[in-house]
Amino acid sequence: MRQDLKAHYADERLPRYTSYPASPHFTGAVGPAAYAEWLRALPAEATASLYLHVPFCRSLCWYCGCHTHITPHDAPIDDYLASLRKEIGLVAGHLERRPAVRHVHFGGGTPTIMAPGAFRELMALLRAHFPFAPEAEIAVEIDPRTLAPAMIRALGEAGVTRASLGVQSFDPAVQAAIRRRQDYAVTEAAVAGLRAAGVRRINLDLIYGLPHQSVESCIETVRQCLALRPDRLAVFGYAHVPRFKKHQRLIDAATLPNAAARRAQAQAVADALAGAGYRRIGLDHYALPDDPMAVAWAEGQLHRNFQGYTTDSSDALIGFGASAIGRLPQGYVQNEPALRAYAARVAANDVATLRGYALTPEDRLRAALIERIMCDGAVEVGAVCRSHGWDPEALLASLPRLRALTDHGLVKREGMRLTIPDDARAYVRNVAALFDAHLGTSAAMHSCAA
What we know:
Layout: H1 6-10, E1 13-14, H2 32-40, E2 47-54, E3 56-57, E4 69-70, H3 75-93, E5 100-108, H4 116-129, E6 132-142, H5 149-157, E7 162-168, H6 172-178, H7 184-196, E8 201-208, H8 215-226, E9 232-237, H9 259-275, E10 279-281, E11 285-287, H10 292-298, E12 303-305, E13 308-310, E14 316-320, E15 325-328, E16 331-335, H11 339-347, E17 353-358, H12 361-376, E18 378-380, H13 381-387, H14 392-397, H15 402-407, E19 412-414, E20 417-419, H16 428-432, E21 447-448
Parallel strand pairs: 2-5, 2-14, 3-4, 5-6, 6-7, 7-8, 8-9
Antiparallel strand pairs: 1-21, 9-11, 10-11, 12-13, 15-16, 16-17, 18-20, 19-20
Helix pairs in contact: 3-4, 3-11, 4-5, 8-9
């Protein structure tokens, strides 16, 4: 990482560009009626991915930035799942032509907090309403600490193909500071059980920049993870935002590593994974060479959506559950985030859409440019502009910061091609922001670029 760039770019607060425009620009101008119309307009040949949000956990991890609720009881989960099942039927009812499903992702919270029978029922319901492609990927996020053998069997029987397990850190001091005790043996048993049940692909999630974390503890966590030989690892930097996530105030800020230490941790993890044969994918993912994500990256077919980097190229992303976000050809929609309000909307036989955004032709162009920068670290501006009927010279001339970024070495320009050098790849969001016409037009607080 180029240390000389830090003063100019590291503290810029920028979106993570899992969508363009970013979700703070969604408004109530797009509501249930618009969403229903967009669903009905999906063409017969369309493909889809499905996202199901299960916003419950058994205990609160103090670092968490997710939209989740803590419950020791099953009743709130059962009530929520009843609404979720009804929403699936309501949304499917608006589809005049059911798109073929190529990806399903259960996110949370902890999706495996539900009963094994409930998971089987949900999968059966999805298959009843949607045709599944034979090669469809079905992925589930898992907390190994609460994963019971009965749920492992249910995942295998339901056809789950990929599991993402939260690890964060195996350092006991770090775990104590973030209130997430998770022995290596627990994770090892979960991975072994999942593979035995037929879940072929395993992802592990790590975090750097946590309290009491060091380069040495990061490397030790990576060493233990490598013993499990996961197909992918996601490595995120901890975002300490106690102003927005009040439970993060329970973390002693004095124990957090400073910016230089965070960068050293990130680099140490990257080097260790590269040395073990993993390909670095985009900003924060690593994959074995035969993993579909590494293949998609090598072929220039990697994509980015609300789950981060993905191989999903479907025409539509249909989100189910409180706060879930969807994307259709016409734009984005987001469900009501409050559980009671979400349930009330569904009980009224309406889709749960609270807000959204209708894309313009210029938005689609800029989204395509940003996606290629975020995924490939490079973009052929001329080719992308021409595919959208846009003048590439006029677009480049409208980017006031392009000269500064090229002068500082964040971007190398060769004709219409922009490339981020390897030693500046940590600043990929700064380069993507070149194309963001909405940046600074909302009061949203984004995370620092590096």
